[in-house]
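Q: My labmate handed me this sequence with no annotations at all. I'd like to see what the chain might look like in three dimensions before we decide whether it's worth expressing. Could you predict it?
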Amino acid sequence: MEINLFFEPVNEQIIDKYRETGQKRVADLIEIYSQKDHFPDISQFQLAIFGVCEDRQAINNEGSAHTPDIVREQWYKLYHHWPNVKIVDLGNIRQGHSVEDTYFAVSQVVGELVRKKVIPIIIGGSQDLTYANYMAYESIGQLVNIVSVDPLFDLGKEEEPLNSRSYLSKIIMHQPNFLFNFTNLGYQTHFTEYESVDLMKNLLFDVYRLGIVKSNIADAEPIVRNADILSFDISSVKASDAPGNGNAGPNGFSGDEACRIARYAGMSDKLSSIGFYEVNPIFDQQQVTSQLVAQMIWYFVEGLANRKNDLPVSGSLDFARYIVKNEGQDEEIIFLKSKITDRWWIDLSYGRDPNKQFDRHYFVPCTKDDYELAKKDEIPDRWWQFYQKLM
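A: Here is what I predict for the chain of 391 residues:
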């Protein structure tokens, strides 16, 4: 697939603005596609950042299509700290004749990058582009977990067309389906129908209220660690820290919490694509929101630079194994603790027939608290939820 056909090069004026002799800024030290006849060899890189200039299906946020170059400017002027991480900026995917054309381009680009073990960093554009990101994995044939940082579930109504508020229902209904699990991080209850919460739980999806996550932001780490795709709607950040969104509100994550979540995503050996959506320059006072997203990308790369390659595989000797037998429970609960990072997982692989499709989902990130809970003869919610999925 010649994915260069989908891209417009980065405007050299943006590059020159932040490329300074003797400075070690991002613009100086990453590869940038800026000349039409010199498209980079993507296989040489670990990360590929690109913009998608698409907002035709945005809800109350038209104007986000103009975001990529503004975030790019803020990203370029930050200092580069990762000599061993190879990054390329591929420019922007052109808006297609129809929005479906844009979705096709995004899915083809993400699919090609993931196949070549290059992690895409998408700068939207509206969040319905998450659907296009997901569709890339259909072409790969890979079951995926999606984590969406969002004040809403984006289920929409059954008859509603695909847009930034209904993309999740379209993913759920799409056949063949390659969604193993969906997690919402930071939903705000006052924006959410009670029936929608029940539906998400009946689908065995994870949903975490904003207040619960904010009470201990470190608990977001194992949640994010389980994602293949992370989709970040900037309206999940409170308006005082991210005013550049037509749906910005008074409550949400703080800017530093958003950066921590991005860093957790970077640290995850499982995550293979990430997107930042719904920034709107029309509302962005002093480009505060664009600066925040640029810094979130910075912290994502920082997390990736500190990956420890401690993703469990069957038979690995890099993990301590803890077995808990609960009264009245036939199946033992097996926990793994990394000898490298001290991070915890639940092991659901024992006693199951090998199934390559589910291999990556047998090991569920958790916390030490889940282990302590199991020792008290209580079954952790994470174990029960994923046990049911694998039955």
